Amino acid sequence: MSSSAPVAPDRDLDRAAALAAQLDPALDGTTALPADPAYDAALPGFNLALAHRPALVVRAASPEDVVATVRAAAGHGFGVGVRSTGHSAAATGAGDVLLDVSALDALVVDPVARTATVGPGVHWQAVLTAGADHGLGGLCGSSPQVGVIGYTLGGGLGPLARTFGFAADHVRAIDVVTPAGDLVTATPTQHEELFWALRGGGGAFGVVVGMTFDLFPLSTVRAGTLWFDVDDAHAVLHRWREHTTTLADDVSTSVARLNLPPLPDVPEPLRGRAVLVVRYVRHGHLAAPDPLVDDLRQVAVPILDTVGDLPYAQIGAVHADPDDPMPFVERGGLLRELTEDAVDAFLGAVPPDSPVLAAEIRLLGGAVAGPPAVANAVGGRDAACTLFTGALGSPVGPPDVADRLQAVHDALAPWTTGGSLLNFAGPRDDVSAALVREAYGPATYDRLLALRRRLDPAGTLAPSSRWSVAADIAADVAP
Q: Each residue of 334-344: pLDDT tens digit?
C-alpha cells in the first residue's frame, strides 16, 4: 500500500477489492485500489484543494464502462463520484468510487444543424476550436478548460449569458446512465422529467456520457478587459454600476477586485498588484460604439486595455483564468440589486492585503432572466448580479480562508437574495446546499428532491452532487 493511502476498516478494503475483481474483466478501462501503484497518480484534478481518497478509482474508456461501474458500485454499497477535469466541488472518500470519465472525449460538430455532440471528457476549448472552422461557437464559461458537461449540468453562465442565456437553455439531448445503471437518452419528449432536472440540477440524477447542444454564429466579438489600479476602483466601479442600469442585452460584463500574486506567469505590469478589472463582451456589429468602455477609459487610465475585436475561439482571454492546477476555495452568492452602498461595501470588504484573490460581481439580466424554450431547473434567474469570491486553499492559503471569503458575502448581505447559482455555490457543505436551495425556490427544489429520491433512493450518486446529504436528511424531517 502506498504511504499516502488511507487506513480503512478491513471490511471496506475487502468490499473495494471485491468490486475491483468484479469490474476488471468487464471494463475496457482500468481500476486502481489504494494499494496499487497507479492509485495516487489517478487522484489529483484541477482543484488541488480536493483530497480524493476513494475506495477505488475507475478510469472509464466507454459508456459501457460507466454502466458497469454504476451498477457494480451500487451493488457493493459504494457511492459514485464523477470527475472529468477535476474542477468539481467535492472530494470522494473511503465509501466512494471515483469514476474518471476524462477519456470519453468524442466530439462531433454538425455545421448544418449547428450543434455539437460531446462526451464527458471534452473541454470547452475543444468545442470552440472545432466550431471556429464553421464560424460557430458554444456558450462556454469564463475558462475554456472546464469540462462542457459538468459546466452545463450546473446551468452554465458564460461571457455571453446576457445575450443567449444559460448553456443549459440550449441543450437538445442528453445520454445518461441513471443511478440504477440504465443508459437512456433524455430529450424534451423522452424522459422529460430527467431532461428537466439534468439541465440545472447538476450531477445528482445520472452520469452523463453524451450531450448535444446548440452552437451559434460566433466568429468575432468585441471583448477584452480593462485593468485599473486599486486607487481608481471606487470611481470606476461606481461608473460601471451606473451604466449597468441601461445596458443593452448584447453586452455582458463583470467587475472584479483581484489581489494578484507576484508570480512569473502574471504579466509584469500587474504582478503583485491590487487591481479592479472590468470584463466586457459584446455580440453584434463590430463597428457599433462601446459607450461603457469608452466612458470608463475617461474615468481613469487603465494599466492594461485589451478590449478590441477578438476571435470567439479565444474568448478565454477575457477572464484569463489560470490553466494550471492549484488549491482553490470559493464561495458564491446572488445580489438582488447593486446600489451605491453595495458597491462601497464590496470594495471595503476586499482590501489590498486580503488573502481573497478574486471577488467578482457579474451582471445578470437580459436573456438570463427570461425563460428557456424548454423549461429546466436552473435557479436564480431573477437576481441582478452574481457575487463570487475565491482564494488559495490549503496548504498555500491561510487556515481561515473560508471565513475570509464568507466575510465578503456577509458584508454584502443586505443586498443578497440568500441564494447562489449551482456552479458558483462553493464546496459541498451545508452552506452551499442552503444557497442552492434558496436560488431554486421551494417548487423547483421540492421537484428536484422528489425526483432524486425516486431515481436514487440509496444515494449512489450523492458524491456527484453539490447538495449535501445533511441538508437532504433535514428536508426529510422538516415540518
A: 999 999 999 99
